[in-house]
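Annotated sample (chain length 361).
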Amino acid sequence: MISNILQSWYETKALSIVTIAGNVAYLFIMMALLKAGMGVIGYLVAGAVIDIGMTAALIPRTLELVEKSDDGGEKSPELMQMIRFSLPFIVTGFLNQIVWRHSEVLFLGKWAGMEASGYFGLAYDIPQMALEFVPLTIWPIVMAGTSEVFSKDAGRLPEAVDLYFRLLFILVIPVAAMGFAFSRAMVPILFGGEMLPAALLTQLFFVVFSYSFLYTPMSMALYVMEKSWVNMLVLTLMAAINIGLDVALIPRYGIWGAFAPIVIVLAIEVVVFDRAVRHFRKDVKIPVRFIARCYLAAVPAACLAITANIWDSPAALAVQMAAGLALLVAGFRFMKILGEREKGLIMNLPIPFKEKIVAIL
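Output written by the structure step:
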């Protein structure tokens, strides 16, 4: 709720800073607690601490904005506009808690035990956090910018969506490839041997979550077109399918019965969001060829998963990671991923070393 209120005022700077700090702190706190032998409880405590901390950090700025709104109080036009903007996000946010992990964690706890729930939660959180780290930071900025573009010239929406697709997959695919290659070997090193059962799932989630970004720009386009009710309908349908599959599969197959619904539902979600957006704007399309080139460029680096499972000492993995980065650079250059438009996108990002990144790729 608080993050959506800040988005309604285009308070992208504060939201981005807190999101980055929260993700980094979560990783370090979780690693420290797991290393201290707290196991599954440490994972749960880390999540609770970060959620509370991020909320507390954003509340003062939120209250300040509400107090400064015209006329103040509940009758303020600005305040009511903020509420109308935020409420659909609250509903879809709740539905996302079902579609994205939490239903599986609850059902696993009931039918497979707390340990299975903890393994699944760790395997889910690490790829999600790694892949969303930069995209989640720039989401408020992209949302605000696309809304402004649409308000001035609705005909430029396809261009804005296409650019967002390109930006997302330039950011996501390298992380997904490196995660797939090395996460399975890194889980016991970073989180202790008792978390080894989460290693294979962690590796596979890097692949699954990479294609989930295929619907993110489409969902944003619906918000920009003020079709938030469509987002709610789609996510309601996805939540119903997700829960149905959880109930059918988890009691029988345990952790793998929790993994399968996510794979299936995210794939369906991409198709449904694409159809929904094209119902209103047939000119908004997914840049399939560009995304396919991104995946192909990352295949050589991802194949290092084979060697990482053979030579899995920290020193050997460090050497292979360096080789993976070199393969990614070679792949991006060979597939010519970065044209002039893509270079411009990266140069406008609020990230360090962007000039060097563009020069290398």
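Annotation: The radius of gyration is 21 Å.
Annotation: The chain is about 85% helix and 0% strand.
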